[in-house]
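In this section we walk through a basic example: taking a raw amino acid sequence and producing a predicted 3D structure, encoded as discrete structure tokens. The instruction is simple. Fold the sequence below.
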Amino acid sequence: MKVAILTSPNQWFIPYAKELEGKISNSRLYFSHCEIQEPYDIVFILSYHQLIAQEFLDLHEYNLVIHASALPKGKGWSPLFWQVLEGKDSIVFTLFNADAKADNGAIYLQETLHLNGLELYEELRDKQAKMCQKLCLEFLEKFPTLSPKAQSGEESFYPKRTPKDSELDMTKSLESQFNLLRIVSNEEFPAFFVKDGKKFVLKIYAHDSTDSAGGGGRLSL
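The resulting token sequence is shown next.
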């Protein structure tokens, strides 16, 4: 069985994609679907940000995508982060076969990621990626006995997040905005607030419990 792994270049998921490639025999990692010139039995499309034409999908037996929501709820952008912002600590991940519409294909697997409520951006990304790896390997282990099911129920959509979404409200407590602080990236889209027309950036880190300063988190301004 030939397996392709497709992810976008220059982004956070690449180390995990390479790790997954090492766990799947007869697999190859690609950074653009245009590079894939031969048909594959399975193409895992993971954290990939280009539009893919139906002609490409038709070349392969399975084009599998993983989305961090209980589809058809939570279609769209950054579903994991939106749900963390909503205060959810159980996130359903869905592995489904891609079709021409976004987040719309038949479902093969769903598993729940349980969070402790304290994970920050990097740890959330790590848990997200490891769940994606797990679902890919589970699909291969159970293939071809899995039976797909059509998506059913009311669908909902998340919009694309922008750096503006990392803005803190100075009139609210840190406690009430902690989930927002969990999903900001200190380097790419850090938390910030504006006072008297001047922008201030905050970066958040988790202290090691063995640190001499004690446990808890640290904000730097």
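Looking at the output, two observations stand out. The chain has five helices and eleven strands. The helical segments are 14-23, 54-58, 79-85, 121-142, 178-182. In the next section we compare this with other chains.
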